[in-house]
Amino acid sequence: xxxxxxxxxxxxxxxxxxxxxxxxxxxxxxxxxxxxxxxxxxxxxxxxxxxxxxxxxxxxxxxxxxxxxxxxxxxxxxxxxxxxxxxxxxxxxxxxxxxxxxxxxxxxxxxxxxxxxxxxxxxxxxxxxxxxxxxxxxxxxxxxxxxxxxxxxxxxxxxxxxxxxxxxxxxxxxxxxxxxxxxxxxxxxxxxxxxxxxxxxxxxxxxxxxxxxxxxxxxxxxxxxxxxxxxxxxxxxxxxxxxxxxxxxxxxxxxxxxxxxxxxxxxxxxxxxxxxxxxxxxxxxxxxxxxxxxxxxxxxxxxxxxxxxxxxxxxxxxxxxxxxxxxxxxxxxxxxxxxxxxxxxxxxxxxx
Length: 352
Fold this sequence. Notes:
This protein is α+β, with helices and mostly antiparallel strands.
């Protein structure tokens, strides 16, 4: 019983507290999609990651990977919108074909561990309508990424949340090379390094961090924070918060999001861990509870059979009394697990 109690405690503890999981929660995550698995390949499994597979999963489309000679298709009923945004009004037609686009991206890269694309994950405010969310994502992606020369492949998902509502979020896959119509692939021969971080900002941050590590002074900490704020990741995080809050205000909502750390916001509690599979915890709890109940039942039954054999050898009268007690114990045990279990808080929403 300790296992299922632990799962229930974990879930209800994380779910408790409306201020922890209020509306319009901020979430922006950046990651790079590369060919490298990041782990040892499993026998019979994938030997590398693929931009085509990633695009197929996020868009719900069935896409063919030329380099691997295989189709990729995933069951994604929560995909409600997909589109490709290009940095030029004169972009070639093939750029808007998801299968062609990502196969060309794959052909551009020769290394076995090459970086293929950057992905931005964005939680979208529930307070906005579908069209308002779409306008928000388009404006943000155009201003921060497409306007700098990247091609953006957008997919918006609305899976069910634990409280029965929606968990709207967007996946944005971004190319790492600028377009170049003079090249056979249509992309530049080199990646745009400034899209990772400009050399100037990287040097500024490194120097500020070294000074602060050497002195530990408040002034150097402020200088380090100011330098860090200029990094792409922090520029994009701040820009998303500002764009989402403008959209919320335009929609007449009082909800707001904040990209800053809890400490910077004056909120003194430990940050919550990111639980990408949190919506499965409730199901896991009931599954584990059922399995543990079965295990306890078998263990108790085996112990009782052993005890009955001892009675049978020593005293048949006591055996008869024991059988009656056994029936009462079995009924009591079953009744304990027929009691309704308190459901986890409906306010819990893992991606919001």
